[in-house]
Each structure stands twice: as structure tokens, then as C-alpha cells.
Write a structure and sequence with these properties.
The protein has about 240 residues and is of the alpha+beta class. About 40% of the residues lie in helices and about 25% in strands. It folds into three domains: about 5-75, Orthogonal Bundle (Arc Repressor Mutant, subunit A), CATH 1.10.10; about 85-130 and about 205-235, 2-Layer Sandwich (Alpha-Beta Plaits); about 135-205, YebC, transcriptional regulation domain (Alpha-Beta Plaits), CATH 3.30.70.
Length: about 240
């Protein structure tokens, strides 16, 4: 059984209302643009773009905004070019953190992220200090109070489902990135409601800090996610029982 990103389920429970609507839309537009620039404007063949568009639709972003973001990415219309970067860091309790960045000002963002880490009890790491701990995976979230792991396994195994684990009342189904939407369609075809599907960087092994350190780490992760240029935060944090 492989590890999965417990932070995904923590974020999922926090709900969509945490981020201001304007900031959330800004992040979604950046991600759609970057995904289209990287892999083209067809969401059927670009898994990253499909995930970004699905997230935008689930947050009720107007279709016109989505379409313009895709066209900026493919170069059909002009727009700000954002640089993609990834910072590696350590948080309280020695948890590993990967921070995905999209910015139009590398120096400003670096200084601000460093300040957040210091304030939250973390620190930047050297290149490849924690990245090797993470693999790219697809993750599908299912309500564990309505469905069982066996139901999810039975519905998704032939479509490419690799693993299921339960965190609290959320079942996390893991796939290869390329199989994310095939498995999602198989689950939904079997009548299983999907609460969310995402491409994530998942740690194969997790760290369980003390309760106090875990709370500090969660606060740091939340502060990082609130930054306008932070598109994603990945960690090997596992909350203590």
C-alpha cells in the first residue's frame, strides 16, 4: 500500500469557501494558462488542463474566463507570462514540503515564501532535498460515509485503480496520472459519487510529528496556500491519532 497525500483530505474538509473568490479565480486562471502552454489547449489529451478546467467549473468560474485562459496559454491571445518554479522546504516536525509556484516576479515571490516559512517554523531546503520523496499520482476523493473501499476497488480496478486508503471519512483512490479520468469515469459509471479528482505529488512515506508540531505544520501549509503565487502545496505530513 503506497502512501497518499493526507494534506489533500485536510484541504478537502476545509471546503472551498476558505479562499476569497477573486484570489481563487486568479489561481485557477494561472493554472489553466500554464497547463495549456505546457500541453496544448485540448483538455481531452492534456490531463493537467482537464484537472484545472474541472476545478474551475466546480468553483463556478464563467466559461468565458476559462476559454480566455486557455487561449492565453496557447498564444492565441496575449497575456502575462508566468514562470513556473518549485521550492523545497521543511516544516515543523521535519515534514517535507513541495511548493508549486507560478509568478511574474521570481525575486518577489522567493522573498515572500521565505518569510512565510520563517514565520511558520519552516525553512527552505536545497534543490532535490525533498523532491525525491514525492511521485506524481492521480487522486480521487470519495465520501467514505456513503461508500466502502471494496466498492471503490471493485468499480475502479479494471480501469487502472491502483490503491485505496481511508483518511477520516474520505476514501482516497490512487491512480497513475494518465489514468485519473478513466478511473473517475468508471467509478461514476458504477454509481459512486466523486467529491474531487486531482493530479498531486504524493509521498511514498509519511512523517507523523507530535500533535503540537502537526498543528504548527498545518498552519504553515495554510499560510503558504493563501499566497497568490502558490499554486499547490504537497507534503508528507500525516496527522497523529
Amino acid at each position: 500500500m503506497s502512501g497518499h497525500n493526507k494534506w489533500s483530505t485536510i484541504k478537502h474538509k476545509k471546503g472551498k469557501a476558505d479562499a476569497a473568490r477573486g484570489q481563487l479565480f486568479s489561481k485557477l486562471v494561472k493554472e489553466i494558462t500554464a497547463a495549456a502552454r505546457e500541453g496544448g489547449g485540448d483538455s481531452e489529451t492534456n490531463a493537467r488542463l482537464r484537472a484545472a478546467v474541472d476545478a474551475a467549473k466546480s468553483n463556478n468560474m464563467p466559461y468565458d474566463n476559462i476559454e480566455k485562459a486557455i487561449k492565453r496559454g496557447t498564444g492565441e491571445i496575449e497575456g502575462i507570462v508566468f514562470e513556473e518554479m518549485q521550492y523545497e522546504a521543511y516544516g515543523p516536525g521535519g515534514v517535507a514540503i513541495l511548493i508549486d509556484i507560478l509568478t511574474d516576479n521570481r525575486n518577489r515571490t522567493a522573498a515572500e515564501v521565505r518569510h512565510i516559512l520563517t514565520r511558520g517554523g519552516g525553512r527552505l531546503g536545497a534543490k532535490n532535498s525533498v523532491a525525491y520523496l514525492f511521485n506524481s499520482r492521480g487522486q480521487i476523493l470519495v465520501n467514505g460515509s456513503k461508500f466502502t473501499e471494496d466498492q471503490v476497488l471493485e468499480a475502479g480496478l479494471d480501469a487502472g485503480l491502483e490503491d485505496v486508503q481511508t483518511a477520516g471519512d474520505t476514501i482516497v483512490a490512487t491512480t497513475a496520472p494518465s489514468m485519473l479520468y478513466k478511473v473517475r469515469e468508471a467509478l461514476e459509471g458504477a454509481g459512486i459519487e466523486v467529491d474531487g479528482a486531482e493530479l498531486a505529488k504524493v509521498a511514498e512515506t509519511t512523517v507523523v510529528p507530535s500533535e503540537k508540531e502537526a498543528e504548527q505544520a498545518v498552519r504553515l501549509l495554510e499560510m503558504l496556500e493563501e499566497h497568490d503565487d502558490v499554486q499547490g502545496v504537497h507534503t508528507n505530513l500525516e496527522m497523529p491519532e
